[in-house]
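Quick one:
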Amino acid sequence: MATNITIQTISTGDNELMKIDVYLAARFGPGSDKARTTMQELSELKKMLADEVVHFVFEKADGTTRDAYGTRAVDVIRRYENSAAHNPQRAFKGTFPYFDIEKGEWRCFKVDKFVRIDRDYTI
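Output:
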């Protein structure tokens, strides 16, 4: 299997991003514009989620879009008393886990169905 692993994922040693990169290359073709731009967006999303609540959009399995408000920031997740809040969801092949602040639970989406980050959203 040919991979599209970016210099950024190799240099940071980010195992999650490396797996996503390989998945996107297999899905869209190695070196494709779609794989590259999606990878860049997901890398940025991961960084943003570590520190804040982010509004982003992805396509659900039924073809509709989902506006998600999520985070991976521990200080935000701690505010939820739900025991599921403290047990991060493991990523399955081609998925990206995040803590959904509207549901108060860990959720995930298929990385090839990612649409965009709302960079204008602030809390």
